Amino acid sequence: MLATMVVLALVITSVIAISPVVDFGDVRRTVLTHDRLDGVPGSGGEGYSYLATSQSGAPVTWACEAIIEVEVNPQGAPEGYAELVASALATVNEASSFTFEVVAETDDRQFFDRPPGPVLLGWASEEEVPDLVGPVAGLGGPSYVSGPGGARSVTGTVVIDTDLPRGWFRGMDEEAVLVHELLHVLGLGHTQESGQLMAARHHGQSELGEGDLAGLAALEAHACGTS
Ligand SMILES: [Zn+2]
């Protein structure tokens, strides 16, 4: 039997900023409920979906060619986590024009309601982060601000479950889980196509599929105004 795990998205959204100038100090954020973790129905394209869209239907993502700072909280991390994180980030960076960059280690554990700033990447128990309950291997998603000009991601979270049964990752690719969550941070939702890394359930796929890559390209095109 193949191990199956669920790699859910977590989106921490903002609500509309009324002023044409986005007021970062007045961003309200809401954790979406589970039935919205799979992305916006009908959004995206073949093999991919968008985690969130603006009213125009454009995906919520980062600024064009954004350099996205990441702070790593090593509490509860597996041995060799630094290499694991570096490898996952390199995989995503090579596949997109967005660039994740580890800037520091931190003891920050504010996985939710984060103010604009570095993405927090860490490990947590189900007790600390109840949404990691059951077979959920990790959560990932952005926070974004929105205004008349659209929406833009300004921070995010990746949190990996430390309560997975011993050996859970055996035969599976722990790095793939991180890459999956990082693609949520960039703005991709789940796809129904099981061969993609952004499928909600992991069946051993360990590399980015064509749908994943098409989704990243679509995010970039929207971010850079070339779509
Ligand atoms: Zn997911």
TrEMBL record:
Highest taxon of source: Bacteria
Keywords: Hydrolase, Metal-binding, Metalloprotease, Protease, Zinc
Any one Gene Ontology cellular component term annotated for this protein: extracellular matrix
GO-annotated biological processes: proteolysis
Classification via InterPro entries: MetalloPept_cat_dom_sf (IPR024079), Pept_M10_metallopeptidase (IPR001818)
One annotated GO molecular function: metalloendopeptidase activity
Entries under Gene3D superfamilies matching the protein: Collagenase (Catalytic Domain)
Domain Peptidase M10 metallopeptidase: 169-217
UniProt protein name: Matrixin family metalloprotease
Lineage of source species: Bacteria, Bacillati, Actinomycetota, Actinomycetes, Micrococcales
